[in-house]
UniProtKB/TrEMBL annotation:
Compositional bias annotation for Basic and acidic residues: 26-35
Pfam families: Cupin_1 (PF00190)
Keyword Metal-binding: yes
Name used for this protein in its record: Oxalate decarboxylase family bicupin
Alphabetized InterPro entries for the sequence: Bicupin_oxalate_deCO2ase/Oxase (IPR017774), Cupin_1 (IPR006045), GPI/OXD (IPR051610), RmlC-like_jellyroll (IPR014710), RmlC_Cupin_sf (IPR011051)
Organism of derivation: Polycladomyces subterraneus
Superkingdom of origin: Bacteria
NCBIfam families: bicupin_oxalic (TIGR03404)
Residue span of region Disordered: 1-36
Sections of the chain in a coiled coil: none
Amino acid sequence: MERRPKNCPPVPQPIRDDGAGATDPGPRDVMRDLENPDMLVPPATDAGKIPNLKFSFSDTYMQLFHGGWSREVTVRQLPIATTLAGVNMRLTPGGVRELHWHKQAEWAFMLVGRARITAVDQDGRNFIADVGVGDLWYFPPGIPHSIQGCEFLLVFDDGNFSENDTFTISDWFAHTPKDVLSANFGVQESAFAQIPSSQKYMFQSYVPGPIETQKVSSPYGTVPKSFTHRLLAQRPIRTPGGTVRIVDSSNFPISTTIAAAFVEVEPGGMREMHWHPNNDEWQYYLTGTARMTVFASNGTARTFNYRAGDVGYVPFAMGHYIQNTGNQKLMFLEMFKSNRFADVSLNQWMALTPRELVEDNLHVGPELMNALRKQKWPVVKYK
């Protein structure tokens, strides 16, 4: 008989409380099953076929460089996620994500430490800023920029995006004849004797000095709309179960293709049952553990479990909730390929619909009807 260490959690079995299922003697990944209890034992309300709506950054390929690392979750890892893609990147002190640009817009959330970013727009107006934990930046498509320092999440407005498709300055120089470089810049070819022979992508440099020492004066001035936003400095929407901070083009004007919500759910709390009428939802989990059931219409629903470092996805207009299943605060980002954040609350919809119509539709009485709220509570307390 197998001896299990003391304090080791019991081996979960795919058996529901109603008796459905059977033991699984293996082979199996018990640790994975412990992380996904509602996938091993789906609620009886789950039904039908819904594609996978979860992928962990821990399951992606890690690219290692002198200066840091990067990993991505795109449509290649999570095929349902067609609207947005994400890159988790870490730069060492002095590490640089080299001068580059993308076909897609880049939206970012600082996870750890501080970073310095630079950019120049199509009118020659430049930008430099230092950002810290919880700060955002947004670079429109085609705007050249650089990043130096610490860890962040990058989100791009195309699920097919790949970091390997980035336009980098070293790559362009390496693949341009030196006589052309000479003619372009008006210097001798010898000036390019030491340029990289291939793309650098990321490299180790020095820790930059005070921002004032790196500012470059442009005759055209600085960009008219800031590329950065202090999300955690916003006053949150507070409800009994937690808080929500919403950021879109209404309060971060440059961010015209990505809208987001930063959600904090206390233990015993839940992101209420709702859906989004504008686009698919791409999620990134920062802390805690959660479960989410997605309702896809026509008697179809599926439940998933999430933890820090996971990406979740909800296709357009599908109903869902996100429940804190742990004893610590759950924090996650909801992101959308849209210029505005929008959601429809199930509770509010019912409260603002004629009472008799709701009662006849659902066969419910005063206990539920009197509890409905006309005001939206993004996060609710259930225990």
